[in-house]
Specification:
Layout (H helix, E strand, L loop, with lengths): L13 H14 L4 H42 L4 H23 L3 H21 L7 H22 L2
Helix pairs in contact: 2-3, 2-5, 3-4, 4-5
Amino acid sequence: NEPCADLPGPRNSPCQVLWRCYTTRVIGKSNIMEAVANMRVARVLLAALFVVSGFNMLMGMGFSGVVAMIGGMTMAGPVAYIGAVLVLATKIVGGLTFAFGRGKWVEYAGWALVVFTVLTIIFGHSDMPKDLTAALKNIAIIGGFLAVLSARSRE
């Protein structure tokens, strides 16, 4: 017998079968709402890191300080200005959209923050082994995003 063969709905992939099995048999139908609420909390907690960091950068260094920081990494001139705008927009707008957005906007913001975090590892934490802990922290953050985005695709 196929596991969970009595469950309604299409059986398109092994992942969908396992998810239906898990949510119906392990979590229980009454706890599915709790799982969705936990996913919303996870979105807010992941996003808070970026939103708070973005506001701290803006308030602590000012926009010109962010431009100077970006310029000191690898970019100079107008490219640093554009980079600063992108960094602040990704952190603040992307973070708020990921936390409180709806529909596909959550996925777009989540993937933008994943790409941003990968670029942060490459450009911001490239001094190994000194930056190893910061790079590993960012890899863990990417894992959190992937878990949330994966769960959202099954909702």
